Amino acid sequence: MDKLRALNYFTKVAQTLSFTEAAAAFDVPASSISRRIAELEKALGAQLLHRTTRTVRLTEAGEVYLQQISLGMAQLEAAEELVRERGNTPSGMLRISCMAGYGRLMLMPVLEDFSERYPDILLDVHLSDELVDLGGDQVDIAIRGGVQPEHRVVARRLDPSRFVLAASPTYLAQRGTPKTLDDLSSHAALLYRGPKSVFKWLGFDGQEWVYPAIDPVFISNDGASLLAMACRHRGMVLLPEWSLRAHLERNALVVVELEQPVAVSRSAQTGIYLLYAQSRYPIPKIRAAVEFIYERLAHPEVK
After folding, report:
1. What Gene Ontology molecular-function terms does this entry list (predicted)?
2. E strands of the chain, at which residues?
3. Which residues of 209-229 are buried (b: 16+ CB within 10 A; e: fewer)?
4. By C-alpha distance, which of 80, 111, 8 is closest to 279?
5. In this structure, is residue 303 part of a structural domain?
6. What's the Cα-to-Cα distance from 4 to each of 8, 10, 77, rounded to whole Å?
């Protein structure tokens, strides 16, 4: 049995949950994929996949096996790519996943310059706020916000992602400007929905972080929609400073400074992070992109 080929086939079926898609990816008949995986299961003495005429899913043993081999497969792929490209000009497809709002406002202008400098690199950019698995989702570089990610990936902080409370001058003229956490109860709140939950507003009352009383009037997973509502005087937003910058500069929105700090997380490590697998960093195209993006986007506060 060609063990490496069987592992590649199994990994692709596990990722796509489809023999047909896996066969298309390797340009072989689906029957060849099925036969190789059956041989692998026989050698292991365990069933890795549940198969029906319509569905494919991992067994418990299959999930454990996939988790254990994924890192090794990624390292092998990185080693092969590094040897192929050693001494060469950075080239090939580079897959980047980035938060939608940050991608449009901050990353895309940088990638335009990157493409001019490295014309042999084909960028495949996916903008989404959903969580991403660098290995399973076949992503070379990811940019995500939140607390510092797990240790399995390299996480370089790009921005402290300081959250700022803001509203339009017209809204504040109509409703008044809040000064304290208690004042927020009489104001309309425009809330952001993250991949897992709605971001609740937090305030530090001098002793501990508390949830101030607010009046939510609109919730969205799209920061641009929240900003549009704020510019139409519908309420106040609590969003990262980088997302507000253009609106603040043209005075469409103004910062609302309370006597107490406000935030969406108690963690001091909240920020925007540039993520990549350490094993793939030596590959020329990945190393070039990581350093270019970091140099252009890293906030002076985190450099």
Report:
1. DNA binding; DNA-binding transcription factor activity
2. 49-51, 56-58, 92-98, 121-127, 141-146, 154-159, 163-167, 188-192, 202-204, 209-210, 215-220, 236-240, 254-255, 262-263, 271-276
3. eeebebeeeeebeebeebbeb
4. 80
5. no
6. 6, 10, 11
Kindly state whether residue 123 falls inside one of the protein's structural domains.
yes
Evaluate whether residue 100 is within a structural domain: yes
How many whole angstroms separate alpha carbon 97 and alpha carbon 93? 13
pTM of the model: 0.70
Task: Encode pLDDT of 142-166 as tens digits.
Answer: 999 887 766 678 999 999 888 999 9
Burial grade of 114 (CB within 10 A; 0-12, 13-18, 19 or more): buried
**43 and 124 share one domain:** no
Tokens of 244: 């507000």
pLDDT in tens, 220-269: 999 999 999 999 999 999 999 999 999 999 999 999 999 999 988 887 66
Q: Residue written as tokens 């992602």?
A: 161
Quick one: CA torsion of 42, 44, 45, 50, rounded to 10 degrees?
-70
Query: 184: which DSSP letter?
Result: G
User: How is residue 262 written in tokens?
Assistant: 């406000």
Amino acid in the structure at residue 196: K
- Please tell me the distance from the alpha carbon of residue 163 to that of residue 160, in angstroms, as a whole number: 9
Flag whether 144 is in a domain.
Answer: yes
CATH of residue 16's domain is 1.10.10.10
Beta-carbon contacts of residue 129 (< 8 Å; ≥ 6 apart):
99, 100, 101, 194, 195, 221
- How many domains does the chain contain in total? 3
